[in-house]
Design a protein that fits this description.
Layout: E1 24-31, E2 38-49, E3 53-58, E4 67-72, E5 81-92, E6 98-106, H1 109-132
Length: 133
């Protein structure tokens, strides 16, 4: 539907509109290597969020295309909600650690709706602030 931040724009490289939303998240992952399984987990906050994925900072390198379980809490959901994602990219950050971009691979409709509300609310706030500046 028009105006839905979760709709494709067709002209942008990104499939979904992103907003600079800071949300607390927990994540965990595990993947095989010739030397054995590598696993990790952490708690951090998002740098931006869309209905299709999110970006966050971490101390550990997470290779593409590792799958993660991410637990996030939104105003609309209350308790932390799990979402499954795949690492789309991981880059070294200028200030140390890594910046990770993930794409959601499994997200329930309730969480997708809550993310849509969060993204739309943040984009509306930015537009209002820009208009007043």
């Amino acid at each position: 539907m028009a105006g839905d931040s979760c709709s494709q724009t067709g002209k942008e490289r990104r499939r979904f509109q992103r907003a600079p939303v800071t949300l607390p998240i927990e994540y965990q992952y595990q993947y095989p290597t010739p030397a054995g399984a590598v696993s990790g987990s952490g708690c951090t906050t998002t740098d931006n969020v869309s209905c299709g994925g999110l970006m966050f900072h971490t101390e550990s390198f997470i290779p593409v295309p590792v799958f993660l379980e991410v637990r996030m809490r939104l105003e609309e959901t209350g308790a932390p909600v799990p979402v499954f994602a795949r690492v789309a990219w991981c880059e070294e950050a200028c200030d140390g650690g890594y910046i990770v971009g993930v794409r959601f691979t499994g997200i329930n409709p309730r969480l997708r709706d809550a993310l849509n509300m969060t993204v739309m609310r943040e984009l509306h706030r930015e537009i209002c602030e820009a208009a007043l500046a």
